[in-house]
Design brief:
The chain is α/β, with parallel strands linked by helices. Helix content is 32%, strand content 23%. A five-stranded mixed sheet has the order 1-2-4-3-5. The longest helix is centred in the N-terminal third of the chain and has 19 residues. The N and C termini lie far apart (51 Å).
Length: 168
Amino acid sequence: MMPDRAVAPRLIRAACLACLAATLLVTPSTAADDTDERADYIRSHYSKFEYRIPMRDGMHLFTAVHIPNDHTATYPFLLFRTPYSVRPYGADRYMNRISPSAAFEEDGFIFVIQDVRGKYMSQGEFVNMRPHRAHKSGPQDVDESTDTHDTIQWLLENVPGHNGRAGQ
């Protein structure tokens, strides 16, 4: 049996409120204290470096690299490329989070966060979802895969403490 038109909006509103309440109950806390604790952890366990990594066509992409302060082990790179900015800019200014989860930060990775081509501090022309070029005829034929490749190659040659592995 269908509810009448006067009751339907109230039922929808009640269902939405119930979903919201359930979401709030199972979602981890994002209180300022948690964010502050995570930011303090990052500052005390990672050193931040900033680079302008050269691409094959001469453009430079702005990249923040967070290296664990524990030098007794080597770590894989975990690369995040974003059109939404890697700010705050400045080697002494840290993000409140450098990975999707605090567990990643505790496990130990070299976190690499890069402004994609043409956004914020990176040079070049931004093209949203730049199409892949299967056949490249020279260094001017660039796409997301060439920028990612050039970045990882540069990291392997210039950043210490890595184990030769990279993920994205």
